[in-house]
Amino acid sequence: MIASMACFRGRAIAPGNSSSQNGAMTFTPRTAIVTGSDSGIGRATAVALAKAGMDVGITWHEDEAGAEQTAEEVRSHGHRAVVEHLDATDVPGCGDVVDKLIGQLDGLDVFVNNAGTGINSLVLETSYEDWRRTVLTDLDGAFVCLQRAARHMVDVGNGGRIIAVTSVHEHQPRVGAGAYDAAKHGLGGLIKTMAIELGQYGITANAVAPGEIATPMTGQTDEDPREKHRPGVPLGRPGDAHEIASVIAFLASEASSYVTGASWAVDGGMLQMGPQGGSHITGDDWRQG
Q: Does residue 195 form part of some domain?
C-alpha cells in the first residue's frame, strides 16, 4: 500500500467533491461515516452532518433500534442513511464494515471514529481482560477503521476529513482510568501522525476531546445538562452531545481547511482545573480566588 500511495503525490485533484483554487484544495463533503452513532455524541454528530448536506453511514454495537432512530433523523433532513453493525473489538472485521458502508454511500469524504468504551478500575485492580477489551475497542479497532477510511480517501484523490472522538483524558490522566487513558493517549498520537502523513493528499486529521457530556456513557441519557451543577467545571455544568457535534461538523467542513493535527478540548474548561478537578471539586469557593 505504501508504494501505491506514493503514486498519488502531485496528482491533480479529481472533479467532484474537491477542486483546486490558487493551489489550495476546496472541499465540499457529501458523504460521511460516524461509528457508534446509535446514541449520544455519535447520533448528534450524524444528524449535524446531515444538516450540513451529507449522506451518513451509521454504525451500532448493541442498540440497533437506536441506530435506526438516528437514521430516521438523518433522512428527515433529506439525506440518505445506511446502517450497519460494527464491533470495534472485531479486528480486522470492523474495517470490512467501513469498506461496506463506503460502497453503500458511493464514496467517503468524512470519517468520524466515535465508537468507544471505558472502565472505572485502578491499575492495580484492572484485569488483563478488561485492559485488553478497552484498548482493543478504543485504539486497535479505531486504527483499523481510520486506516480503511484514509486508504479510500487517498485512492480517490479528493481529499477528506478524518476525525476521532477521544476524551479530555487524551490530555490528562484520571485515577481509575488507566486502560482508557492509555488508549485515548494512543488514539490522539495516531491522529497527529495521520495528520502529517496525509496532508499531502489534502486530508486533514483532528481529534475532539470531550469532557463530561450528558450521554448514555455517563449515565445521563436524555438529561438536560443545564440542570446539573458541576462546581469543578468553569462553565458549571456537563456538556450536551450537540455541543460536541457542532465542533465535529466544523472540522468536517471546508471552513476547517487549515486545521490538522489538533485536538479540540470541548469540556467547559475542565482541563484548566486539573485531571481530578472537574469531578472532585465539590464547592464554588475556588471562584473567589
A: yes
